[in-house]
Amino acid sequence: MTQQEMLQALQDLIGADKVRTDTDALITFGRDWTKIHEPKPSAIVFPRSTQEVQALVKFANQHQLALVPSGGRTGLSAGAVATQGEIVVAFDYMNKLLEFNPVDRSVTVEAGMITEQLQQIAEEKGLFYPVDFASAGSSQIGGNISTNAGGIKVIRYGMTRDWVTGLRVVTGQGDILELNNRGLLKNNTGYDLRHLFIGAEGTLGLITEATIQLARAPKDLQVLVLGVVGMAEVMQVLHTFQTSLDLTAFEFFSHNALEKVVEHQGLNAPFDTQAPYYALIEFETTQEEQLEEAMRLFEACVEQGWVVDGAMSQSEQQAQNLWRLREDISETISQYTPYKNDISVRVSKVPQFLAEVDQVVSEHYPDFEIVWFGHIGDGNLHLNILKPENLAKEEFFSRCHQVSQWVFAIVSRYQGSVSAEHGVGLIKKDYLHHTRTPEEIAYMKAIKRAFDPHNVLNPGKIFDL
Questions:
Q1: Nearest CA-CA partner of 229 in 283, 309, 149
Q2: Domain boundary among 296, 330, 364
Q3: Do 353 and 414 contact (CB within 8 A), yes or no?
Q4: Within a domain: residue 457?
Q5: Residue 127 belongs to what domain range?
Q6: Same domain for 253 and 211
């Protein structure tokens, strides 16, 4: 099949106005937030229904073509990058609210709905969708589910997986599966295939609809930012606050991260005192006693010598500004072409783990600046190495590739994960063995063959067949 024949067939399947081959579209929809791989898709298609997605998958099987699913393209593992002339399936037009059930406190939405839109729908209904992160304004629900997105509220609310009660998917063979799509909370009837597709990065099937559970909206959230003298002390602060308060978030960031955000985003530092690390704590204050308890815990941490200063939000706007000190880090450092690693270990092992990684990188590459931040309450660290201004991008990424091998060896020794919440994609697949055993990988490949025997869905992501 020639390129022109393929394009004509795609237009016949979903409409001429939903197939694009212009350069802007190929670059925009053929990549995600990673900058290592150059996008080279052959076409971008925009289906409008599950049936059109099914037709595309069957067409791909018939002609041995590869499909790459594309959501908000905010991923950081090149899971949505098309580098080998694949057809990109973008879900931007499948973004409707299909059902809201106030009794069940659930919504059914199409895969292309923006995360922030779902959050707003929940808020309008007096409810809450708790999965939240900096890219909520552009990421899509289907992509969140396909990478089992985490974010800033995991310590209280868990991962995306914990809120997906049902899915509608098109498998790699072109079958439409209804995976508990009625949203049953109890359904113990054999294998729950729904969970295979959550975190599968579109390698088993394409998610077209999802039924999402909603929660009670938290009330009177307070934000407290503390300057902490060291990483071990950050963990002491976490333990202290967790024993007495039901935290909704516990984040951390290094001082150089704070400096860059303050400089580039026009924000104010939370206080004049400098500290190596900062902890951002969020909690509900439905009763006055909870606010008093937070102040007592803060004073206790100061007395112990763990904390040097702190700032408590006095208004909703101030709470938002304090959150921006943490949430604006990724956007701020993007101008430095950062090499990112999203890793996790058990919470109790974080201080030793971070110290080892920091020492290895600093020892071998003293000219590299390291920016740390992350969801410290669940053991998830984001290691960001910033490209020196006078170093070519290709050489920088090559040197960072060596860094990753050292970092992931430490991850393996600490029995951690090489990808805490961003997936494996192209960037992490060579390191999968640090977290998964050969037997696990063999079973994962067998599952892939069962759902996608011709390897048409996102081939080359997670592992090679």
A1: 309
A2: 330
A3: yes
A4: no
A5: 97-216
A6: no
